[in-house]
């Protein structure tokens, strides 16, 4: 009898310790001990150290990523703001469009909330690490180079040649290919050609391998011990720096000696030439960190977006038919003698329906499920007081999949973009404000060109496993990387 009493007592004591003390340790550490100083939104601070990471991983690995936010909404009401402890920091998840926009637009109160590993790997002169005045100066300098009509018009030819070659090559393959993997390689070729004018197979292969190691480091702990993921990423970054230093040295020599003045300029040429109002340009360290960042952000986004757009079009014949009709109309409007020439910027701007297809792809896919910011000081946010140093997780996926904002959000429906009016902050795939992704126009240009040649060229995607499950981390993708045949109708 005494043994049973002892066992029951031990179990009760363990339960009290685990769920009465341990389970509430984060709540006490970050909320309760401040004695009501902060008016935080409701939520779940989770367990010590891990917070709510386990339910987050469970939701995203189960194929139901939205269930993570739905749990907060069902527990604490659909208020669109919830406190939690996630990714190693006390955080507030934000799903209200207007509040999301306020956070992303307000550079005075909210800084980038990237991890230590990300800050180290992107470099001290990257856009996400430099001071606000320097950030504004760099943005002004590079704006016309990465999103201006003149620059984009130059890049069209770079993109077209690679897209056409890749499509023709894939269509001749007898075996299925991992379409996503092929898209990543193609996107990388395009960026290398646009940014530094490189197009040799060996160099492209070397750079792609380096960026694979570099990319993995962003999701690791910043522990520089030989053999770790972060250590390999640092090694890859150092090698990328050496490569770009060599490229810059060669281009400066060419400029000095006026070599190849008539050749097509790439973005690095333009970055070397650009000057601000006072005649100051960009130093080599800044250019290198910009190039590293552009490559990192650019090839993944474009590759995944193009794959998704093709998948959605293949699954929606009516939408594909409308897109095809628009592309045929644009080509047929050319003089007969020019039917086979390349696209112009004017023609790309006429692709109104295709633009809706691209926006709907970005909305439904939500490649970056969250955008992270950090409070610079105590902040009043939508009636709540958020402490200095807390992360604000702008949950873009929750906004893009909210049925109160987008009717039937699970459906792929480009017609929802017929009405240009929408709630502020309800479409934020590239962020907003001064920190808006600078490559948005270049990315959309690349997607539009690929879709044009895929659709108008009579290509089709025949997936081997059309119903295969999805992985949602780190980016949403089919588990088979979209194994498929690229077929061209005769």
UniProtKB/TrEMBL annotation:
A molecular function (GO) term: heme binding
GO annotation, cellular component aspect: endoplasmic reticulum; membrane
Example GO biological process: brassinosteroid biosynthetic process
Subcellular location field: Membrane
Required cofactor(s): heme
Pfam families: p450
Keywords: Heme, Iron, Membrane, Metal-binding, Monooxygenase, Oxidoreductase, Transmembrane, Transmembrane helix
Residues engaged in binding heme: 437
Topology of the protein relative to the lipid bilayer: Single-pass membrane protein
Membrane-spanning segments: 6-25
Source taxon at top rank: Eukaryota
Family designation: Belongs to the cytochrome P450 family.
Protein's name in the database: Beta-amyrin 11-oxidase-like
Gene: LOC111470633
């Amino acid at each position: 009898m005494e043994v049973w009493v002892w066992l029951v007592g031990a179990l009760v004591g363990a339960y009290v310790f685990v769920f009465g003390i341990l389970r509430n340790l984060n709540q006490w550490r970050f909320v309760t001990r401040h004695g009501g100083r902060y008016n935080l939104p409701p939520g779940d601070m989770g367990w010590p150290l891990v917070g709510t990471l386990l339910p987050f991983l469970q939701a995203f690995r189960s194929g139901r990523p939205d269930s993570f936010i739905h749990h907060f909404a069902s527990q604490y009401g659909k208020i669109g703001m919830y406190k939690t402890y996630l990714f190693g920091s006390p955080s507030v998840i934000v799903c209200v469009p207007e509040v999301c926009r306020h956070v992303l637009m307000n550079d005075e109160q909210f800084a980038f909330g990237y991890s230590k590993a990300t800050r180290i790997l992107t470099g001290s002169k990257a856009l996400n690490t430099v001071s606000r005045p320097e950030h504004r100066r760099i943005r002004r300098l590079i704006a016309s180079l990465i999103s201006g009509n003149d620059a984009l018009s130059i890049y069209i030819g770079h993109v077209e040649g690679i897209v056409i070659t890749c499509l023709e090559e894939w269509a001749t393959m007898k075996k299925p290919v991992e379409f996503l993997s092929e898209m990543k390689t193609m996107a990388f070729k395009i960026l290398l050609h646009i940014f530094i004018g490189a197009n040799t197979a060996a160099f492209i292969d070397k750079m792609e391998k380096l960026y694979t190691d570099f990319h993995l480091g962003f999701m690791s702990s910043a522990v520089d011990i030989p053999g770790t993921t972060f250590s390999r990423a640092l090694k890859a970054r150092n090698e990328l720096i050496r490569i770009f230093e060599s490229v810059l040295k060669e281009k400066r020599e060419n400029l000095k000696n006026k070599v190849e003045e008539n050749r097509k300029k790439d973005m690095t040429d333009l970055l070397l030439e650009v000057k601000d109002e006072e005649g100051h340009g960009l130093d080599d360290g800044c250019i290198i960190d910009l190039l590293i960042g552009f490559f990192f952000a650019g090839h993944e986004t474009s590759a995944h977006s193009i794959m998704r757009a093709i998948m959605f079009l293949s699954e929606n014949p009516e939408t594909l038919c409308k897109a095809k009709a628009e592309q045929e109309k644009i080509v047929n409007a050319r003089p007969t003698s020019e039917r086979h020439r390349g696209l112009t910027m004017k023609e790309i701007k006429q692709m109104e329906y295709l633009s809706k297809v691209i926006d709907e792809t970005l909305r439904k896919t939500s490649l970056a499920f969250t955008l992270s910011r950090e409070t610079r000081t105590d902040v009043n946010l939508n009636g709540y007081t958020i402490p200095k140093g807390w992360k604000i997780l702008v949950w873009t996926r929750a906004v893009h999949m909210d049925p109160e904002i987008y009717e039937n959000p699970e459906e792929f429906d480009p017609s929802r973009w017929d009405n240009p009016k929408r709630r502020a902050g309800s479409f934020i795939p590239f962020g907003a404000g001064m920190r808006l992704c600078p490559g948005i126009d270049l990315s959309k240009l690349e997607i539009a060109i690929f879709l044009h040649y895929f659709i108008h060229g009579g290509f089709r995607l025949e997936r081997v496993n059309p119903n295969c499950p999805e992985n949602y981390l780190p980016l949403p993708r089919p588990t088979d990387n979209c194994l498929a045949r690229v077929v061209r109708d005769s």
